Amino acid sequence: MSESSEIAPALANLAFHHFGLAVASPDDAFRYLASLGYRAGNSAFDPLQRVNLAMRHHPMMPDVEVIWPGDGPSPIDRLIKKTGTMIYHLCYACADADAALTALSAAGMEILTVSPPTPAILFGGQHVSFHHISGFGLIEILHTGSPGTVNVRRMDSR
């Protein structure tokens, strides 16, 4: 499939939000990000995802969600065991996730929903869903069209 300069209107509503960094323990990641000028944001243990989460923000660089296992089994255990620390998802905020996923599918992307919309404690209960895009990898969608709002910062508006 060739690249196109035209973006379906539904895809134009996808705004990059952050990337997810899976780690076995967060201390080294926190030190590295702090050395680059990142500041601490919200942090929480999410019992639905069974992981610890901490946001890091920077005025000129993408936000980073640092994710590490809790006490029990978690969705990132296999990733960490296999590859160690790694960026494993990109997150996009979107007011109409169904329309965006339909547009991606219409553009020829194969999409497998890994996790349906679920409240995310780190984002004040805002729903998130995870989808595997064939040939690309895992994306998270922050559903801004569900009740409540999330402060979405586009990279060009910082």
UniProtKB/TrEMBL annotation:
Instruction: Look up and give the organism this protein is from.
Output: Bradyrhizobium niftali
Which InterPro entries does its entry note?
Answer: Glyas_Bleomycin-R_OHBP_Dase, VOC_core
User: Short name of one Pfam family for this protein?
Assistant: Glyoxalase_4
Q: What name does this protein carry?
A: VOC domain-containing protein
Source domain of life: Bacteria
List each copy of the VOC domain by range: 15-144
